[in-house]
Amino acid sequence: MSGEQRRRRLADARLYLCTDARRERGDLAEFVAAALRGGVDIVQLRDKGGASGPLEAAAELAALEVIAECCAEYGALLAVNDRADLALASGADVLHLGQGDLPVSWARRVIGDEPVIGRSTHDPAQAGAAATQAGVDYFCTGPCWPTPTKPGRAAPGLDLVRDTARRQRDAASPRPWFAIGGIDRARLDEVLAAGAERVVVVRAITEAEDPEAAARSLAEPLRAAALT
Ligand SMILES: Cc1ncc(COP(=O)(O)OP(=O)(O)O)c(N)n1
Ligand SMILES: Cc1nc(C(=O)O)sc1CCOP(=O)(O)O
Ligand SMILES: [Mg+2]
Q: Which positions in this protein are listed as binding 2-[(2R,5Z)-2-carboxy-4-methylthiazol-5(2H)-ylidene]ethyl phosphate (predicted)?
């Protein structure tokens, strides 16, 4: 996919899923396919190890291959977390970088201009920088609520979503941005009311008994809100 096609899909994206490699369950392909049927637009492999220990590069690439096949079937974007080398090796559409990860200009040296780069932000200054920094295509703001998926990270809450929405409404060249952290169906309306149009979720889909239904319950209101 060209860089232009990737950026068009990013502009249309509303629901972004981060998942681990589901090593304990062994159902990665089935799980990702279900989430995509439910309306997920971007799938990121984010496997920080947990009880199974760190995911080695070869195992991460194998999991990325599985996700890539599902994403290709549903026209979704494949995202790699943290590692520019694995984004390049896997041919991923997206590389996501946090504040402590590789600087964007260095990541661009590794992956070139075609893949999309996203950044995490946790306060108005970081969000303001990511909204204009060269080489960045989208950014995320959060956590909206404290979340066990990212223990120890203080939550700026919905104030950061409101602030970002206001600034991006007034921006000459607004960038796609996503709210993240503690978001589920019960909280989605609050996040939309605060001004977000796109969200990232982990547990709301990874821990759901029916991942397709869980994804659909988020994707439908996000799409409906985008039409109003
Ligand atoms: C889409 C998306 N948004 C935010 C994050 C968090 O990135 P980071 O702050 O680098 O933390 P880790 O996920 O690496 O623990 C993300 N991964 N994806
Ligand atoms: C991975 C991550 N990054 C965050 C940030 O604020 O940058 S919050 C977060 C975890 C989101 O998980 P859940 O949907 O399960 O709460
Ligand atoms: Mg990171």
A: 147-149, 182
